[in-house]
Protein: Regulatory protein YycH-like domain-containing protein
Organism: Lentibacillus populi
Amino acid sequence: MQWSQIKTLFILCFLVLDVYLLMQFLDKQKENDLAVMEKQESSIEQQLKLEDIKIPDLPEGELEESYISVKQKNFTDTDLSKLAASDNQKIALVEDKTIVSKFDKPIPVKDSDEVKEIVKNNVLSPDSYDYWGWNKDLNVIMFFQEKNNQPIYYNQKGLLLVFLNDKNEITFYTQTMLGEENKDFDNSKKPLIKPIRAIDALYNQYELHTGEEITDAKIGYYSAQPMASDELIFAPTWKITVNGERNYFIHAIEGFAFSNDDSTFLEDTMTSIKNSLAKIKDDKDFQEIIDQLDLKLETINRSEVE
């Protein structure tokens, strides 16, 4: 065998050996990383236990989700025709993006179940929305739109608001909707941080206190983009609920917290609705809605002063 052939054979052998050693190193590194993560998670759980902070059974395994990109839907005459069958609604379409519907006869309700039933029978695509909550101070009920069976938290462009008077009667509602996802957007799935690490982020920000309880950990979507953006990108987001009443939102890929506040969100949304309705001139019914919005905005302003 010629020396050049022997040299080539040695080179190939060393290359194979190098590849094998590299693979062994990467496998070992991965095992070490997993061990470190498991140790960190165990440490987090121990710290929470010391603080008597209770946590539920959390989703396990490697979780993956993708970002999504969506534009706001423009409602059409066909959409509105689906609501026309109700003789108790007077409907206006504002700038093709917001449905405002006033009930000629206010509808009394006792609880959220009755509200859900009324929504089911009176709004467009009711199954696209998820009940969020009833703000008793303002008597406004919020429904968040869903995408991929996950709620989109606190976004004015995918929102159903039901407004009640001081007799707990539904007087009107407003509705916006997000359209179909952008199919050209990179929707490759990315690994999510585990919910225990989202809880740890809250603990490190002093949002969790001794004796409290984590009552829910659920994935949804959130966008920190300005509302003026034509196309919104939504990030997978952990919603962490504390004591069944306080909600926090943690970016499920990058790990930072989103800010949120019911009153601030409702104030911004109602102000936007009011400004849009002002463009409908000489309409007594919708002037009444503006007046009701003014009263609710005044409630927020009084509570801020106090």
Notes: The first strand starts at residue 64 and ends at 65. The CA atoms of residues 93 and 99 lie 5 Å apart.
